[in-house]
Write a structure and sequence with these properties.
Layout lengths: L17 H4 L3 H22 L1 E2 L1 H4 L2 H10 L6 E4 L6 H9 L34 H11 L7 E6 L6 H12 L4 E7 L10 H10 L2 H14 L3 H18 L3 H5 L3 E7 L3 H12 L4 E7 L7 H5 L6 E2 L20 H15 L3 E5 L3 H4 L2 H6 L4 E3 L4 H13 L3 E7 H4 L3 H9 L6 E5 L16 H5 L6 E3 L4 H13 L4 E4 L23 E4 L3 E7 L3 H11 L2 E4 L2 E3 L3 H9 L1 E11 L4 H11 L5 E7 L9 H7 L4 H12 L1
Parallel strand pairs: 2-3, 3-4, 4-6, 5-6, 8-9, 8-10, 10-11, 11-13, 12-13, 15-16, 15-18, 18-19
Antiparallel strand pairs: 1-7, 12-17, 14-16
Helix pairs in contact: 2-4, 4-12, 6-7, 14-21, 17-19, 22-26
């Protein structure tokens, strides 16, 4: 405080990256410190991605200081870590709206800012995008940068992109943000010195001169190149990247702003594929997040001064993930062949408890959805009972493996699909809007959609006991709170259930929309049917219902095109049933972020909208 007034912060003067260009390194460090404080204060009030953003503050400041954005192009992998980028690029005063309806997107989004090079949300895509940008901008004198985390680097797509970019000698820089030291903990004076040395103009000039001299004797030139690669490999972990065609630099301290800026300035002058390895601390600057990197990766609003886990989204109810967790732990006690597989979503999918109790049967394969599915196929082929826990939007990446390696072989694999339907705040990249459409067309699959937590557990049991590929898909978040520790119901494959008899209209519900449809059925005095199975469809029940109903209304939290309602349409048309049909589901568009209820309402899946559509249809 000065003269009774609050001291003006440097961060308040930063409205675009241009404002960073005028500042000294000391001032940039002050901006970084203030940015980290602002992040902690802001995200504690709104919730959002937390630990990863705290870890990239200095890197973000250095990137926007050194590079001429938006002319130079920065691609952020996944985008969990892009809050500091949003703040520096003029969105600081909007950060309190992030992940809310009408507010800032949770990840970089091309239409939101000229500084957002590419819309992201899924992992391991940045190097592919950057390689494409590098090829397209060969003559435009633009710097192309991809920022990727050590987790995302485990994704096969990232490795494919590295292989290709190195081969074509793409003029681009890949920055590995290593916040787990999973590649190497080699951070110290030698590493920093070596990186400064091998990125310096003097070293690069000497290297270029040597290559020129040896050009006439390619065998000797290749020998020297390999000697250099392996010599560097003795003190750095970069041999693999060098072999892929990248010049490797690092590892360096990702929180040392001076070193970062110096190395980035040097690397701007280097042509071809470059790979900079930095070490950061996830949650940097907030002790609870530093100590609990998993729980504080993404948070709900919390008190800054209280060291506690703040991710409980259903304090008085179970989540569907917890229902799955309880079931799989109980089942593993009885079934010794059960093997649990997840592509880097162990905590989110509810496998934390399983991983502790049955560690030898727990397989987190990293961000490798394709491998996860075919790995499960291999286990099943050898007589094991694999259960794949995967998010709906990430299953999209394993579609070929699901068809070719699991369904075609008719293997005994249970796939537990979490985050089906609308996820809410994470938006279009994470909504599970399409799974019923792309699953119901695959032969040999059984596809179940539970309406509540009791049914979810019973379907997991039915899917596990079924001899063949079975799928149970359920939404993110809270159940309806009606879980009963009762004698379990044995689910009959392909059979739905009439819950309420009514007149003239039958509402056929697939999955989690049942509770809101139940109130509509009461008000309109309609028949209410819990269809349970998208595949096989309960054709016998539909045929019986058509005899004494004039209208079918299908309701699902999947896109209408090709979804569960389309399955009913096909059966009715093919069998000349005398009934009119209206399909209610998600529209043919990518739905923006907001709360789950807000997004469902905008999509026409609130109780009021469902009732309104039915009344208009039968009028």
């Amino acid at each position: 405080m000065k003269d009774g007034k609050k001291e003006k912060k440097l961060l308040d003067k930063i409205n675009s990256p241009k404002d960073l260009k005028k500042l000294s390194l000391d001032e940039l460090q002050k901006v970084s410190d203030e940015l980290r404080e602002f992040l902690i204060e802001s995200v504690s009030k709104t919730g959002g991605h937390f630990g990863s953003n705290l870890g990239v503050v200095e890197l973000t400041v250095a990137l926007h200081k050194v590079f001429n954005t938006p002319k130079d192009l920065i691609v952020w992998d996944v985008g969990h870590q892009a809050y500091p980028h949003k703040i520096i690029t003029g969105r600081k005063n909007q950060l309190h709206t992030i992940r809310q309806k009408g507010g800032l997107a949770p990840f970089p989004k091309k239409g939101e800012s000229i500084y957002d090079t590419f819309s992201v949300g899924h992992s391991s895509t940045s190097i592919s995008v950057a390689a494409g940008l590098a090829v397209a901008n060969k003559k435009n004198n633009k710097q192309i940068v991809a920022v990727i985390g050590d987790g995302a680097l485990t994704g096969g797509m990232a490795l494919e992109a590295l292989n290709h970019a190195g081969d074509i000698k793409a003029d681009m820089l890949v920055i590995l943000n290593d916040n787990k030291m999973s590649i190497s903990p080699n951070v110290g004076g030698m590493g920093k010195y070596l990186t400064r040395l091998i990125s310096s103009p003097a070293y690069l000039k000497l290297r270029k001169k040597g290559n020129k001299i040896l050009k006439g004797v390619p065998v000797i030139q290749e020998l020297v190149r390999r000697a250099e690669v392996y010599a560097k490999g003795m003190v750095t972990p970069g041999t693999m990247f060098e072999e892929l065609g990248f010049g490797y630099y690092g590892p360096i301290d990702g929180h040392d702003l001076k070193s970062l800026a110096e190395v980035l300035e040097n690397l701007k002058k280097v042509k071809g594929p470059r790979f900079l390895h930095i070490i950061t601390k996830k949650g940097k600057g907030y002790a609870p997040a530093e100590n609990d990197k998993l729980s504080l990766h993404a948070v709900k609003p919390f008190s800054i001064d209280v060291e506690e886990k703040v991710t409980d989204i259903c304090p008085k109810k179970l989540t569907y993930s917890k229902v799955f967790s309880d079931w799989i732990c109980d089942k593993a006690q009885q079934e010794k062949k059960l093997q649990a597989i997840t592509p880097a979503m162990g905590a989110g999918s509810g496998l934390e408890e399983f991983s502790k109790k049955f560690s030898s049967r727990y397989h987190d394969v990293g961000i490798a959805e394709q491998h996860a599915m075919t790995f499960a196929a291999g286990l099943a082929a050898a007589g094991q009972k694999p259960v794949v826990a995967i998010y709906s939007s990430f299953l999209q990446r394993a579609y070929d493996q699901l068809i070719h390696d699991v369904a075609l072989e008719n293997l005994d694999v249970l796939i537990a699909i979490d985050r089906a339907g609308i996820v809410g705040a994470d938006g279009a990249t994470h909504n599970g809007s399409f799974d019923l459409s792309f699953l119901r067309c695959v032969p040999n699959l059984i596809v179940m959609a539970p309406s509540d937590e009791d049914e979810c557990r019973d379907m997991l049991e039915a899917g596990f006991e079924y001899n063949g590929p079975a799928i149970v898909r359920y939404p993110r978040g809270c159940t309806n709170g009606k879980y009963q520790n009762k004698k379990r119901e044995k689910i009959e494959i392909g059979r739905g259930k009439i819950l309420r008899p009514g007149k003239k209209i039958a509402i056929l519900v697939f999955g989690a929309m049942l509770e809101r449809c139940a109130k509509v059925a009461e008000e309109l005095d309609t028949t209410l049917v819990n269809m349970r199975f998208v595949k096989p469809l309960d054709e016998k029940l539909i045929t019986e219902l058509a005899k004494n109903h004039q209208y079918f209304i299908t309701v699902e939290d999947n896109v209408v095109m090709g979804g569960a309602g389309s399955a009913v349409n096909e059966f009715v048309a093919n069998n000349n049933l005398n009934v009119k049909i209206k399909n209610i589901g998600l529209p043919d568009e990518f739905l923006a972020h907001g709360s789950r209820d807000e997004v469902l309402a905008d999509a026409g899946l609130s109780e009021e909208k469902i009732k309104e559509v039915i009344e208009e249809f039968v009028k």
